[in-house]
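ok, trying the design again with the full structure, not the truncated one.
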């Protein structure tokens, strides 16, 4: 069954959702699924913006055939060459050989790498500022390098004030029959997924997102059409505001998360004691996560949400407990900034995890690592109450 959604009188979503894929990029768990968005323009010339992942090929090609309704396809515009959007390019070109494929110079370089057959395609190369008219619609291309690949283009359509924003403003999460963000309770249904998507996939490229937000501010935008998740036609400032915060590494909430690793439960018990003490001293809604039990992408998302991160970590092989080391390395790889860290370390004979984590965190920009480190010898005991209290005080006062 074809499954399309009208965005405007002439622009139709022809994408598809995938609820079977367990990990996006074979890394990030997506129990909420994911949508691959593609947009069809019904005009004097027909045009399609991007394709979809091969996993949804049947649905996608049926949708495309339905909206074309026997017409030829004039343009296939490629805003982003990552395979979740481009894996069906060659299939589309083989089905509609008259199509002209539109993209930037680097887009065609990448296309040749993924599809050597593309040497034979009819091509139109565009760059920032160039325009493509399909008749009543006029698309102007905006370069968005490293959001989050180097070749990315946005397209702004003047008559509908629609911004086709590639991966920017996208989110994990299948579309459950809707297409507009205002058809959902976005905070409940998508915000956590959108933050996790941003932080893990785009998070490293905050300055580049800032650059493109400045370009977007110069446009009169009524709709944002991303490559994943719902389309925005209302409350754009709400989501633009989130992007402003996320891309400047500002926290969303002045709240605390406690992330611990624990081999046998003693460090877990200490982490719970820290959380209890923080709540009793007025820290508010403290969340506690086991680094071994929660996928690191969720932890990274929580780092983007919160201002203060408490790490409670055992020493392991005279180093950092490996799952915690992976989490700390991921924060460094994603250029986390503007956060306060408090460290508690455990060790039965030579606790060093705190010092090693502190050294790694100190390489991050504008990060405070509190001097008051809590050291646990095997387990936290009633005799540690004073140290625990002053550790919690330091976190609350930071
Ligand atoms: Fe959704 Fe960068 O691909």
């Amino acid at each position: 069954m074809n499954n399309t959604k009208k965005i405007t009188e002439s622009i139709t979503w022809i994408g598809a959702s995938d609820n079977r894929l367990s990990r996006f990029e074979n890394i990030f768990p997506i129990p909420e699924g994911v949508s691959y968005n593609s947009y069809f323009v019904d005009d004097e010339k027909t045009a399609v913006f991007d394709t979809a992942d091969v996993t949804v090929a049947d649905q996608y090609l049926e949708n495309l055939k339905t909206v074309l309704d026997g017409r030829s396809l004039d343009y296939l515009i490629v805003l982003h060459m990552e395979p979740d959007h481009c894996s069906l390019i060659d299939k589309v070109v083989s089905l509609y050989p008259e199509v002209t494929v539109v993209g930037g110079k680097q887009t065609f370089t990448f296309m040749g790498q993924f599809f050597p057959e593309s040497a034979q395609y009819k091509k139109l190369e565009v760059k920032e500022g160039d325009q493509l008219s399909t008749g009543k619609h006029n698309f102007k291309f905006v370069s968005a390098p490293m959001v989050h690949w180097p070749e990315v283009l946005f397209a702004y359509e003047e008559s509908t004030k629609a911004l086709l924003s590639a991966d920017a403003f996208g989110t994990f999460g299948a579309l459950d029959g809707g297409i507009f963000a205002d058809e959902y309770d976005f905070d409940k249904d998508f915000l956590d997924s959108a933050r996790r998507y941003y932080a893990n996939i785009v998070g490293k490229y905050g300055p580049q997102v800032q650059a493109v937000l400045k370009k977007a501010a110069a446009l009169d935008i009524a709709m944002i059409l991303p490559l994943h998740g719902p389309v925005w036609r209302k409350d754009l400032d709400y989501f633009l505001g989130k992007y402003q915060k996320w891309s400047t590494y500002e926290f969303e909430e002045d709240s605390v998360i406690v992330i611990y690793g624990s081999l046998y439960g003693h460090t877990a018990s200490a982490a719970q004691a820290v959380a209890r003490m923080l709540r009793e001293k007025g820290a508010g809604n403290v969340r506690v996560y086991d680094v071994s039990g929660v996928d690191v992408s969720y932890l990274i998302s929580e780092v983007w949400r919160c201002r203060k991160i408490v790490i409670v970590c055992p020493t392991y092989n005279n180093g950092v407990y490996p799952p915690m080391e992976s989490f700390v390395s991921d924060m460094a790889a994603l250029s986390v900034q503007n956060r306060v860290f408090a460290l508690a370390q455990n060790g039965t004979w030579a606790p060093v995890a705190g010092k090693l984590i502190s050294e790694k965190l100190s390489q991050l920009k504008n990060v405070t690592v509190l001097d008051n480190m809590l050291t646990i010898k095997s387990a936290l005991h009633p005799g540690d109450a004073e140290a625990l209290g002053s550790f919690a005080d330091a976190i609350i006062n930071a």
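Keeping the full-length input from now on. The chain has a mean pLDDT of 97.
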